[in-house]
Amino acid sequence: MKMHSADFSADARAALADRQLQRALGNVQRGFVEKRRKARDKLPEFDALRDSAKAIKDHTLAHLDLYLETYETRVKESGGHVHWAADEAEARDIVLDICRNAGAQTVTKGKSMISEEIALNPFLETNGLTVVETDLGEYIIQLRGEHPSHIIAPAVHVNRDEVEADFRRHHDFLPASRNLEAPESLLSEARGVLREKFLAADVGITGANFLIAETGSSIIVTNEGNGDLTQLLPRVHIVLASLEKVVPTLEDASQILRLLARSASGQEFSVYTTLSTGPRRPEDPDGPAEYHVVLLDNGRSKMLGTEFQDMLRCIRCGACLNHCPVYHAIGGHAYGSVYPGPMGAVLSPALAGVDKAGALPNASTFCGRCEEVCPMRIPLPKMMRQWREREFAQNMSPPTQRYGIRLWAFFARRPALYRLMAGAAASLLRMMGRNGRIASLPLGGGWTATRDFPAPQGRTFQEMWRARGKKVA
Amino acid sequence: MTSRDTILGALRRAIGPAANDAARRKAVQTRLSEHPRGLIPARGQLPADERIALFRKMLEDVSASVETVKAESEIPAAVAGWLRRRNAPQSLVHGADPHIRDMPWQDEAELKRREGKAAGDDVTGLSRAVCGVAETGTLMLLSGPDNPSTINFLPENHIIVISAADIEGDYESAWDRLRAIKGDGIMPRTVNLVTGPSRSADIEQTLLLGAHGPRALHVIIVED
Ligand code: SF4
Question: Quick one: three-class SS letters along chain A?
Answer without folding.
Answer: CCCCHHHHHHHHHHHHHCHHHHHHHHHHHHHHHHHHHHHHHHCCCHHHHHHHHHHHHHHHHHCHHHHHHHHHHHHHHCCCEEEEECCHHHHHHHHHHHHHHCCCCEEEECCCHHHHHCCHHHHHHHCCCEEEECCHHHHHHHHHCCCCCCCCCCCCCCCHHHHHHHHHHHCCCCCCCCCCCCHHHHHHHHHHHHHHHHHHCCEEEECCCEEECCCCEEEEEECCCHHHHHHHCCCEEEEEEEHHHEECCHHHHHHHHHHHHHHHCCCCCCCEEEEECCCCCCCCCCCCCEEEEEEECCCCCCCCCCCCHHHHHCCCCCHHHHCCHHHHHHCCHHHCCCCCHHHHHHHHHHHHCHHHHCCHHHCCCCCCHHHHHCCCCCCHHHHHHHHHHHHHHCCCCCHHHHHHHHHHHHHHCCHHHHHHHHHHHHHHHHHHCECCEECCCCCCHHHHCCCCEECCCCCCHHHHHHHHHHHHC
